[in-house]
């Protein structure tokens, strides 16, 4: 017949168990300190190797590698909570030409393969009172500019066409550093010609905005700010692009307001 261990034996086993747990906890803390560079620095070989083993390799700015980041819903959701925060990727390799011929009709997106350039598709959508040359080319029309609130008379011509430009709400440079640097050409052409990401606007406002993200630039016409930010969220969700912390904070500020 077995007998219960005496209290001293139980105390001894408990003491050994606690010592083991404390030792394991200490090892875990040391590993974490080495991996994040606190103990020996990020460039130390020990830190580098442990980072690879644990899968916690960090960028120089402390953010996780963007290549492994999954963001967004894959649908044009206006909810910014589904967007992943990550440090901007490198702009190396970026060029407008990487996104294909500007305003090509040879693209598998809404409006593609309809015989009209993407620019003319958007002008036909956003301008009123338009006149056409043939079935596509917009020769004149009126734009109620969403960025300034001004009314602009558009006339096609070398000296006048630039008064109305087609803006990529999420600029192509921002697209590139938010996850698109590894995309193939068909996908790059899609986002460059997707009507969801395009808007006819005042030319000078488009140039002022440049490559800026939502936290860095908002339209002069504050009544349009919410819609502007909402469209950016929808684009970033649809194409699973990442955002910076400041960018997401701006998006959350406007969420649900329009």
Structural features, described:
With 258 residues, the protein is an alpha+beta fold. It folds into 2 domains: 48 residues; 185 residues, no CATH class. It contains 8 helices and 5 strands, in the order αααββββααβααα. A 3-stranded antiparallel sheet has the order 1-2-3, covered by helices on one side. The radius of gyration is 27 Å and the shape is elongated.
Q: What is the count of DSSP helices, taking H or I runs of 4+ residues?
A: 8
Please state roughly what percent of the residues sit in beta strands, choosing from under 5%, 5-15%, 15-25%, 25-35%, 35-45% or over 45%.
5-15%
Overall pLDDT metric: 85
- Structural class computed from helices and strand pairing: alpha+beta
User: What's the shape?
Assistant: elongated
Give the terminus-to-terminus CA distance: 77 Å
Query: How big is the Rg?
Result: 27 Å
The domain tally reads 2
Helix content: 25-40%
Question: How would you write the strand order of the largest sheet?
Answer: 1-2-3
Got a strand count? 5
The oligomerization state is single chain
Q: Segments where pLDDT lies below 50 for 5+ residues?
A: 1-6, 31-35, 42-68
Transmembrane segments: 20-40
Keywords: Membrane, Transmembrane, Transmembrane helix
Protein name: Protein of uncharacterized function (DUF1994)
Domain GmrSD restriction endonucleases C-terminal: 118-252
């Amino acid at each position: 017949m077995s007998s219960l261990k005496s209290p001293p034996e139980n105390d001894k086993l408990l003491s050994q168990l606690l010592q083991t747990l404390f030792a394991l906890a200490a090892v875990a803390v040391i590993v974490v300190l080495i991996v994040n560079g606190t103990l020996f620095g990020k460039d130390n070989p020990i830190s580098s190797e442990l980072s690879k083993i644990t899968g916690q390799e960090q960028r120089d700015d402390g953010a996780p590698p963007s290549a492994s980041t999954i963001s967004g819903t894959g649908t044009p959701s206006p909810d910014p909570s589904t967007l992943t925060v990550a440090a901007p990727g490198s702009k190396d390799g970026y060029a407008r030409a990487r996104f294909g011929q500007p305003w090509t009709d040879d693209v598998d997106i809404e409006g593609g393969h309809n015989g009209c350039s993407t620019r003319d598709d958007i002008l036909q959508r956003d301008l009123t009172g338009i006149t056409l040359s043939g079935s596509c080319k917009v020769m004149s029309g009126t734009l109620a500019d969403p960025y300034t609130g001004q009314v602009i008379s558009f006339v096609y011509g070398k000296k006048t066409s630039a008064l109305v430009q087609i803006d990529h709400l999420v600029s192509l440079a921002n697209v590139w550093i938010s996850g698109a640097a590894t995309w193939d050409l068909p996908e790059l052409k899609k986002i460059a010609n997707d009507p969801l990401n395009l808007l006819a606007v005042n030319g000078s406002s488009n140039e002022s905005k440049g490559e800026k993200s939502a936290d860095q630039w908002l339209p002069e016409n504050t009544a349009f700010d919410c819609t502007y930010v909402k469209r950016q969220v929808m684009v970033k969700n649809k194409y699973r692009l990442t955002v910076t912390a400041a960018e997401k904070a701006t998006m959350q500020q406007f969420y649900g307001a329009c």
